[in-house]
TrEMBL record:
Family the entry assigns: Belongs to the eukaryotic PMM family.
Subcellular location: Cytoplasm
Reactions catalysed, as given in the entry: alpha-D-mannose 1-phosphate = D-mannose 6-phosphate
Protein name, as recorded: Phosphomannomutase
Length: 252
């Protein structure tokens, strides 16, 4: 059980698989638990690989901005505090147009030659702090998402894609992680979820920073922040497990 005051303990949560089922919205019962039971005991923050509109959609929009002290879309490349945007980084400026164009062209050619059961639309999602690559296409239905994830688990589609990217762009400042069920995130080294810690480790009173996430194994997009010496990592299985671990942590 934690003994720190609310302003001394920060809870950082992943979104998909931690606060919500993959690509679904937060359950009302869990939301109420967070805000009525957990928030009085700890500062709340969310860090997701998705862009700002998607996080807002999944976590109940305006209420999220009211209840969460920190919101970190795109691994914290966008920094929102108490509902106000403080700063943002740009992968476009960091890498330059020539590298970006070569990278996107390579991904599109690779996907075009990829033999998988189905493909839909939106294979490249260009964000402020990262590029999201989706072999099946982000316009797939929820059922198609689940089918691809099962196929990928057996056939290592994304893992092989990452290996090809690492080989082709070995001399470019990019790293890759397999996130969620259908996609790959590409971003400059150090722009993983640990980036958000830059915003909460200086000028704050936090004595403990806890991180809750489901993709904590090596190669998953929660791995680096889960392993970081500045955080206490909690591997979760799903939102119900997140709630159970919070109940144990605060004796709720």
């Amino acid at each position: 059980m934690s003994t720190f005051k609310r302003e001394e303990i920060l809870l950082l949560f992943d979104v998909d698989g931690t606060l919500t089922p993959a690509r679904k919205v937060i359950e009302p019962e869990f939301e109420e638990f967070l805000y009525t039971k957990v928030k009085p005991k700890a500062t709340l923050g969310v860090v997701g690989g998705s862009d700002y509109p998607k996080i807002i959609e999944q976590l109940n929009g305006k209420r999220l901005l009211k209840e969460f002290d920190y919101v970190f879309p795109e691994n914290g490349l966008i920094h929102i505090e108490k509902g106000v945007e403080i700063s943002r980084q740009s992968i476009q400026t960091h890498l330059g147009e020539d590298v970006l164009k070569r990278f996107i062209n390579f991904c599109l050619r690779y996907i075009a030659d990829l033999d998988i059961p189905i493909k839909r639309g939106t294979f490249i999602d260009f964000r402020a702090g990262m590029i999201n690559i989706c072999p099946i296409g982000r316009q797939c239905t929820y059922d198609e998402r689940l089918e691809f994830h099962e196929y990928d688990t057996k056939n290592f589609v994304r893992q092989k894609f990452v290996e090809a990217l690492k080989k082709e762009f070995a001399n470019v400042d990019l790293t890759f992680s397999i996130g969620g069920q259908i996609s790959i995130d590409a971003f400059p080294r150090g722009w993983d979820k640990t980036y958000c810690l830059n915003h909460v480790t200086k000028g704050t009173d936090f004595k403990e920073i806890h991180f809750f996430g489901d993709k904590t194994d090596k190669g998953g997009n929660d791995h680096e922040i889960f392993e970081d010496s500045r955080t206490i990592g909690h591997k979760v299985l799903n939102p119900k497990d997140t709630q159970r671990q919070l109940q144990d942590l605060f004796d709720l």
